[in-house]
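Risk register update: the risk of archive-format incompatibility is retired. Evidence:
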Amino acid sequence: MRYRIAIGSDHGGFPLKEVLIRYLQSLGHEIKDCGCYSPAPYDFPISARAVAHAVMTKSVDRGIVIDGAGSPSAIVANKFPGIRASVVHDEFTAKISREHSDSNVLAFGVKCVSEDLAKTLVELWLRIDFLGGKYQKRIDMITEVEKETKDVQPKKRFVTARDIEANQKIELGPDVLLTPLAQELFKSKSK
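Archived output:
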């Protein structure tokens, strides 16, 4: 089967993205390049967002996101309804992400997989089918969670030590939670 695949990376993942684009095209897949377009510094949320949006709107069938570890881009992609991004680093995780979770976005960390392994895993991931059955029930449960939380806004704001060090204006109130280190820094700056 031939797929339409969106692929995106940060600057660290740029070389692997370029390798995978050529490889996937050689297998007959249609590729949508969602950036980055050079090894210049580039923030992963930009490309991960573009890939997830393309999958969510069905302008492509599947997506691939690449950064240093894989999980940062997967976190971004999983913010989109209907996206099931999976970080994959071996044949087991590639296979199970499709069979059990119907993963539609593959996330690679360039510090975790070689070019050859990435090619093997993406080819495996593309040919594995979702098993359905009891796993479909679980996907349906995830969809229900997405619906329930769609309009929910967090009631508390977390403030970290980094926020305090950056001299952000912080007004304490019932909606603000300070991490333990932030509490110490806040007290020392308040003296």
